[in-house]
Amino acid sequence: MSTVPARTGNKATSARRIIESAFEVLRAQLPSSWSVDVEMQPRPPRGAWRPDATITVEAPGGGREARLIVGYEPEITPKIAAEVAARLRSYLSENPDGQGLVVAPWGSRRTRGVLRRLGVGFMDPTGNVDLVLDEPGLVVRVDGAEQNPAPKQPASPSLRGPKAWALLKTMIEVRPPYGVRVLAAAVGTDPGYTSRVLKVLEEERLAFRERRGPVTEVDWPGLLTQLTSTYRLLDANATSTWIAPGVVRDLPAALAASQLETRWAVTGSLGANLLAPVAAPAVAVIYADDPAEIAETLGLLPADVGANVILARPYDAAAYARSWNADEVTYVSAAQLAADCLTGIGRMPAEGQALVEWMRANEGRWRADDFAGSPNPLPDR
Fold first, then answer.
1. How many domains does the chain have?
2. Closest by alpha carbon to 165, among 234, 218, 208, 227?
3. Contact partners, residue 154, CB within 8 Å, separation at least 6
4. Within a 10 A sphere around the Cβ of 166, how many other Cβ atoms?
5. Which distant-in-sequence residues (6+ apart) come within 8 Å of 185 by Cβ?
6. CA 148 to each of CA 77, 124, 151, 153, 238: distance values in angstroms, whole numbers, following the listed order
7. Pick from 21, 22, 89, 82: which is nearest to 51 by CA?
8. Pick from 175, 209, 241, 292: most CB atoms within 10 A?
9. What is the C-alpha separation between 69 and 66, in angstroms, rounded?
């Protein structure tokens, strides 16, 4: 069993205060006919681990009672959540008449999701509660604060900005294993910066690697969620809006026939529709190094209202990485298509969700085996 240092003095007082505050949040969510009690546990011997508290939940009528074994963490991340869940499961293997519950000053949505998948509940004083009991039957899932009300100055790099964005996108698109230096070289970032970003991703359980070794696994749906939390198609890229004189679905073929020398690639609905059709594309989105040349070639008319074409100068050159071709038309990678649709306009987010489901079911088609790969996700291509 993993061990943690015993809490003393102010730490014990703080733990009691947070647990009692979180307990009141839970009590407020239950009907008055339910009985809920909390019992703080004595300080464990040095080097040992014991629960910080026990919460008893009893349904009306008596006879149906649940014991929640509480593990308190002063700071919790997805990585710490997995570790404390393992401690609780180890304790419960010897004390099977209980269920694990983590209490912390605040827990992110991802942290709560990690605990949920591991079968452990969570509560914090801001109002976040994620608890499921089989007996008595009870489900309480309430969202409190989305942001940490008392954040500390981060010691690690932010996951915002083009460098972090390019790293996350690359890790989504390319299967591990790969080392830090190889990854940094592929993206064009400094190895030290890349290593620090990976430490953040490890803490969030978005990336896994051997000690001082290569990345061995990534949670690509989680990385995609992280990427789209700081990126928006229309905000991150330099965009302009236009009206096409014809049908938008004909634009890619017209571009391919023009044999322009400027770099361009189709994204958004037109690309997603090839892989996971939802409805006829209503808006064309095209990346281009020279949007004006694209507009002139296609005969587009500038428009602020009623536009059906968006031309975008990419946020970063990584937007073009692992592009693929179909009928002489260049499309951005499936990951870029998903990011752009999920953060796009109109029905694009729904198209993005459908594409992500397709990506889950067809991972072998769109993820590359190495950094030089650009797999074509269409069958027989």
1. 3
2. 227
3. none
4. 20
5. none
6. 12, 11, 5, 12, 32
7. 89
8. 209
9. 10
Question: Cis peptide before 136, with omega less than 30 degrees from 0?
Answer: yes
**Residues 254 and 222 occupy one common structural domain:** no
Q: Is residue 372 one of the residues assigned to a domain? A: no
Q: Which two tokens stand for residue 16?
A: 């009691």
Domain that holds residue 269: 233-366
Residue 152 lies in a domain: no
Phi-psi region of 93 (alpha: psi -120 to 50; beta: other; left: phi over 0): alpha
The CA distance from 250 to 364, in Å, is: 29
**DSSP three-state, residue 280:** coil
Cα(309)–Cα(303) distance, integer angstroms: 9
Q: pTM for this structure?
A: 0.80
Residue 2 in any domain: the answer is no
Q: What's the one-letter identity of residue 120?
A: V
In-domain check, residue 132: yes
The token duo for 241 is 């809006």
Residues 74 and 97 in one domain: yes
pLDDT in tens, the chain (381 residues): 333 334 444 556 688 999 999 999 999 999 888 999 999 988 766 767 789 999 999 988 776 789 999 999 999 999 999 999 999 999 999 888 899 999 999 999 999 999 999 999 999 999 999 999 988 889 999 999 999 998 876 556 788 899 999 999 999 999 999 999 999 999 999 999 999 999 999 999 999 998 878 999 999 999 999 999 999 999 999 999 999 988 999 999 999 999 898 999 999 999 999 999 999 999 999 999 999 999 999 999 999 899 999 999 999 999 999 999 999 999 999 999 999 999 999 999 999 999 999 999 999 999 999 999 999 999 865
